[in-house]
Each structure stands twice: as structure tokens, then as C-alpha cells.
Amino acid sequence: MIYLVRRSLTLSDDRFIEITDGDAHYLFKVRRVGRDEPVFFYHEGTVFETRLIGAKKREGVFEIVARYPTVYKGPKIFVALAAIEWQRLEEAVRNGVEAGAHGFFLFHASRSNVAETMTLKHLQRIEQIIESAASQSRRRFLPEIRALGREVIIRRKGHHVVFHPEANNEATIEHFRRKEDIYLWIGPEGGFGEEDLFFFTRAKVCYAAFRTPVLRVENAVTFAVGIARHAIGYNNDIRCSE
User: Fold this and answer.
1) Cβ distance 130 to 103 under 8 Å?
2) Tens of pLDDT along 182-237?
């Protein structure tokens, strides 16, 4: 069973889905989709169950067999991630998607080692990585990513947890058993600076620390999202036949 999560989808007569180029290469050359193998496309809150009816080297047509609406209920997990070097940021986002995050908010911390003005420039590339990671992990849900100021993120309603190595509270599953959305704040290499910590003192946040060896940001995202997602449960993002 194959899932493709896409921000855009080409529909024909509301009965067929047409693919070209990268998707065609992936499905026909990499996954070698046959006519009897179901392929599920997720787009804008709907999952399309399809079957292949025609294929060429660089294009294909799938007939829509059924449609399933998304019905995810319960708290969502968002990662507020400090901007870091772009290759590592891409890996961190990919890891977070596969671990179960529902979205990412990029902000500039006092120790971020990239220019603040560069953040938006790379969002399109990261969105492509999110699509790939969501499809590979069969998320059946397309996480969002936005670049925002930390003052905007902190005002979002939910349980905000700041990961800081000197915090007294250990990051455990019980720490994240909540009925509200969870925001996981993860800093750059070296952690949050004094300016960041002063900012958090003016907000309603909780602090948590990893009781592990020092983790790279990419691994910290995986660890944090994994704990939080395990705490709230791994319910399917969509109700449809398996």
C-alpha cells in the first residue's frame, strides 16, 4: 500500500488523478506500482484511494475508487525550532515528520547561526522534504511549516515546553499527557541563550531536560516528538480501510 501526501494534485473530471515527472518516476520506477496495487493520495483534507489505469515513462493516470475525509481528533504536536544551518534543519524537520509532529514553527534564537532573513527563502525546499517524509512514513497527514517570530508562537494556545539542559524536570511521557496542543521548543547548538531564557520567563511555559548524552538538534527533535506523541497516542490521522 502506497501513500503520497501532496500539496497540489491534478484532478481530471473529478474521477482521475494525473501524475507526471517525479511522482511518475517514484511510483513506476522505484515502487513499481502494478494495476492491482492500491495507491492513496492525500490532498487538502481528503484521501483518494485509486487504482492505476494507464502508465507511461513520465506520466500516469489513476482512477479514484473512494474518498476518505481526515478525522484526526485530539491534541496536536508542534515543534518550535530555532533556525540552524540549513542541511541540518532539513534533517531535523524530516525526523520530526517521521516521529509524528503535526507542524513546525521556525524562529530565530539568540544563538541561531543563520541570518534571520534567510528563513523564508528555504521554506519551499523544506516543504518538499515534508511531503517526502510524510509519504515515506505513511503519515496520511501533511504537517505545516511556517517561519514566525517567537512572540507570535508563544501566544498560540496550548502547552508550551522548553527543552533546556539545566532544567530540573526530566522529559517523561507523563509530562506530556495533555488534552491540548503541545508546543516543543528546541534551541540551536549550545541551547537557548540568556536572551531567550529571559523571554521565556515572561511567558507561561514549562521546562524539561533530556536525561541523555548531549543530543544534536536533529536527534533532539526526534526524541522530543517521540515522547510527546507516545504520550497522546498514535491514533490514525485518517479513518479509511487499511
Assistant:
1) no
2) 999 999 988 899 999 999 998 989 999 888 888 899 999 999 999 999 888 765 54
Buried b (16+ CB within 10 A) or exposed e, 20-38: eeebbebbbeeeebeeeeb
User: Is residue 119 located within the same domain as residue 16?
Assistant: no
Q: What CA–CA distance (Å, rounded) separates 142 from 44?
A: 9
N-to-C CA span, the chain: 9
Residue type at 53? I
Each residue of 102-118: pLDDT tens digit? 999 999 998 887 776 65
Query: How many percent of the chain have pLDDT more than 90?
Result: 46
Rounded to 5°, the CA angle 158-159-164 comes to 140
Which one-letter DSSP state was computed for residue 216? P
* Cα–Cα distance for residue pair 177/210, rounded to 1 Å: 17
* Higher-pLDDT residue of 78, 122: 78
CA distance 235 to 230: 10
Q: In CATH, what number is assigned to the domain containing residue 216?
A: 3.40.1280.10
What are the φ/ψ torsions at residue 235 (nearest 5 degrees)? -70, 145
Q: Which residue has the cell 515534508?
A: 130
User: How far is the C-alpha of 12 from the C-alpha of 60, rounded, in Å?
Assistant: 12
Q: What is the CATH number of the domain that holds 35?
A: 2.40.240.20
Are 92 and 162 members of one domain? yes
How many angstroms separate the CA atoms of 168 and 136, rounded?
Answer: 37
Residue count (the chain): 242
Domain that holds residue 146: 77-232
Strand, helix or coil for residue 104: strand
Q: Is residue 44 part of a domain?
A: yes
